[in-house]
Amino acid sequence: MPRFRPARAVAAVGLLAAAAVGCGDAGGLESAGATPTATSPARLWPDLAPASSPAWNYDDGASEVIRGVTAPGDDVREVDPVDVVRAEIRQHPDAYTGAKAAYRETTRRMADCGGGAGHGRCPVLRPYYRDLTGDGHEDLALGFRLLPGDQTAVRVYTFESGRLVQVMSNDDAISSVELTGRSVIIHAPSDISDYEYRFQWTWDPEQRLMLLTHDEMIRTGREGHRTASPPPSPPGRAPSASPPPSRPASPR
């Protein structure tokens, strides 16, 4: 902290005192009241033995190699997003194929992706590119609709030694998605009026995954404006959106 600041503070106090003498009580300093006493957290049931494993899956995440998708020089911009989604469908047939599959309509609508992601009735949304893993190379943030329901799949992919790896996966009914720093922030609607859920996935270099680091409910306000903001993005350029691929998707 610069050394001249205390001197300025002393001078300011002197001026305030002089003003108080010349003007009586008008404009004088007023007490804001007693300061609340700080209290430390109270630990409950200290004799309770700590659990050694979670009771259910907290969606901690897992990486998955996307088979059959490569790119020259591991340049993720050379990857066709439609091919990436088709590869996921192939690797998870129970979710996407068959009359009883939860997302069977997504598979059917992939036939509408001849014009590329983000065009027409194609369920694959426009891709975004940003270095989310901190290795100096762009990664792929991709979304696609999970039909016939009202959910959206949000994925992040990076290249590792010539292999396209999915490092983040989330399926939800979403309100919006943001990228900030090394994080993906997903806003989802809540059943409680004027509130929404906020999930933050952040890259962990040791786990080599994006982990769910924040899970909270925040107030949005009556007019839909959030009263809690995501953490600020570090200096750097904003995430770049790619124009929808113009080349037709590869036949399968």
Task: Write a structural description.
With 252 residues, the protein is of the alpha+beta class. The protein contains four helices and ten strands; from the N terminus they run αβαααβββββββββ. The strands form two sheets. The chain has a six-stranded antiparallel beta sheet. A four-stranded antiparallel beta sheet has the order 6-7-8-9, with no helix packed on it. The relative contact order is 0.13.
Total E-strand runs: 10
**What coarse outline follows from CA principal-axis ratios?**
elongated
Record the strand order, biggest sheet: 1-5-4-3-2-10
| Fraction of residues in H or I helices | 10-25%
Number of helices: 4
Q: Which value, in Å, is the CA radius of gyration? A: 26 Å
Question: Roughly what is the average pLDDT, rounded to an integer?
Answer: 82
Descriptive terms for the model:
252 residues; alpha+beta; 16% helix; elongated
In terms of topology, how is this protein built?
Layout: H1 4-23, E1 64-66, H2 81-91, H3 93-96, H4 104-109, E2 128-130, E3 139-146, E4 151-160, E5 163-172, E6 176-180, E7 183-189, E8 195-204, E9 209-219, E10 240-241
Could you give a quick summary of the protein structure above?
The protein is of the alpha+beta class. Helices cover 16% and strands 27% of the residues. It has a six-stranded antiparallel beta sheet with strand order 1-5-4-3-2-10. It has a four-stranded antiparallel beta sheet with strand order 6-7-8-9, with no helix packed on it.
